[in-house]
Amino acid sequence: MLVTVLALSPAPDACTAAVRSSINWGTATSAYQVEGGWNADGKSPSIWDTLAQSPGKIADNTTGDVACDMYNRWAEDIALMKQLGVKNYRLSVAWTRIIPAGVAGSAVNMAGVDWYRNLIKALLAAGIRPAVTMYHWDLPQVLQDNYGGFLSPNIQEDFLYYADTLFKHLGDIVDQWMTFNEVISICELGYQVDVFAPQANKGLGAKYTCGHNVLLAHAKTMQLYRTKYAAQKGRVSIALDGKWGYPKDPNNPADVAAAENFMVFQYAWMADPLYFGDYPAVMKETQGALLPKFTAEESKLLRATTIDFFSVNFYCGYYVWAPAPGSPKELTYDVGANTGGQFISPGIPSNAPWLFKTPDGLRLTLQWLAKRYNGPEFWITENGVSGPDEDWKPLPAVLDDTYRQDYYKTYLDNLCLAKSVDGVNVGNYYAWSWMDNFEWRDGFKKRFGIIYIDLKNNLARHPKGTAKWLSQHFFNINPVAPATLRAASVARQTPATAAVPKPAAAPSASVISSKGKGFSLPFSLALNKGSGLGLSVKFGPQGK
Ligand code: NOJ
Predict the structure, then answer these.
(1) Is residue 488 part of a domain?
(2) For 251, which of 60, 147, 267, 399 is 20 to 30 Å away at the CA?
(3) Does residue 182 have an active-site annotation?
(4) From CA 45, how far away is CA 296, in angstroms rounded?
(5) pLDDT in the model for residue 528
(6) Catalytic annotation, pick one of 188, 330, 382, 390
């Protein structure tokens, strides 16, 4: 044991004991990626069940049918978290377990509710505080079939009903929520192109329509929580994704402007409406009819329901440069166009074609966001890397993940600098991921876990070096979850009701056209061309 501890490298320089103890450290997963139990206890299929079960769609032909089997092995996982000193865990709920028929007013599946209640109670009893994402990409297939999922405003009411159900049945033991995970991934990769489920491939207008519906569903959820569930006294946000844009030539004002737009088209696309009630001016000027408009009432709702903390999933940055003169306006300001539709980065490559080691990108992103949104509290709700060769290296050599340790060491150094030098208000940090899991179109070929999952040996769990390093310097310094919350969990009885009433009607959404088709070449279109199925070494199936 002593040898192991001595072998671990020290904490990053900027992460002094004082800085480390000012941040809540944790780790994260999502339902479809770890749970398995794809049709257990009344769960209905999600769009990812459908995609992954279609032959040839996943790089290694795995599915999420079993994944890490957390559905059955959660007690073991929580025991291991406790052993490593983890005090904060971000997980997501599968909509299809809670409301199998998807639509507002339909039956609540209490077996699904109870599974999450048991899991969360066990987390709390182990001193681990949950942060729960409502939607991490696993849309009920029935809602995609009924009305095209996020391309229809119907999704707003159905999501609100689902959110209401979660607040009602889990709100006494969960006080930290995120409505959606990664809107760019949901809307660009799932609806603009056909990289992720539901593989809609309907162009740039579909991305914006999807984002619009996500924003309104989110705002209505915030409103619901602050009225009907105010007594729960929790906090709600939405997890946003983006890459840092490094101007290819920092001395060229056109490249600098392109890099600025790169950030605006990712983060501000979502966060400007959340803070200011409308899309960024540059997007409205350049995207024309492709970008939906908010009614005055919707804009007011957005402004009145500002998020309680700013949740960022951060992985890396890319070079960005000015598009060729004469490019169409939409193309000019499209995210992919501003990087030439390619992943070119100043950072060290990882084994995922979209992911590079660019540690200062985290600090720069936080500075940029803190300035634009006037210094809110930030949570890094995902950060991590897939390790080279981890899909084939044998045990125990595979556990020696020095590449990943170096990634965390340098990124956390920058996070601590953001907090201690730049004065960025960093609240929580979650390493992605707690364990190797179903990495979407890459299956188990890309492993992001700090715990290794042995696919050949009954999914046995083995902590990698990074888990021990994080445990020693970060996880173990946090206090346990608040006692009051734990006490509440023990006192609470499982509700006996089988359905919740329909939530009160929120301001109605404008009807959005999903017909407008973009003609730009986003990252993901390029990605899609070499979609991680061995067609290209340059692009992977993920555009995130
Ligand atoms: C972001 C997503 O939220 C998560 O599901 C995924 O596994 C990681 N990025 C790594 O690609």
Answers:
(1) no
(2) 267
(3) yes
(4) 37
(5) 31
(6) 382
Rounded Cα gap, residues 271 and 277, in angstroms: 9
- The answer to the question of residue 489 being in a domain is no
| 0.85 exceeded by pTM | yes
Q: How far apart are CA 442 and CA 460, in angstroms?
A: 20
Q: What are φ and ψ of residue 524, in 5° steps?
A: -70, -25
Residue 518 lies in a domain: no
Whether the CB of 313 sits within 6 Å of ligand 1: yes
State the residue for tokens 């364990």. 435
Give pLDDT tens digits for 389-448. 999 999 999 999 999 999 999 999 999 999 999 999 999 999 999 999 999 999 999 999
Residue 48 sits in a domain whose CATH number is: 3.20.20.80
Calculate the CA 534 to chain-centre distance. Answer: 26
**Does ligand 1 come within 6 angstroms of the Cβ of 334?**
no
Residue spans of alpha helices (H) in 228-377 = 253-263, 269-276, 281-287, 296-304, 329-333, 360-372
Binding site membership of 144 for ligand 1 (Cβ less than 6 Å): no
* Residue 54 belongs to a domain: yes
Question: Ligand 1: which atom is nearest the Cα of residue 432?
Answer: 8
Range of the domain at 51: 17-474
Work out how many domains the chain is built from and give that number.
1
What pLDDT sits at residue 482? 66
435-484: per-residue pLDDT in tens?
A: 999 999 999 999 999 999 999 999 999 999 999 999 999 999 987 776 55
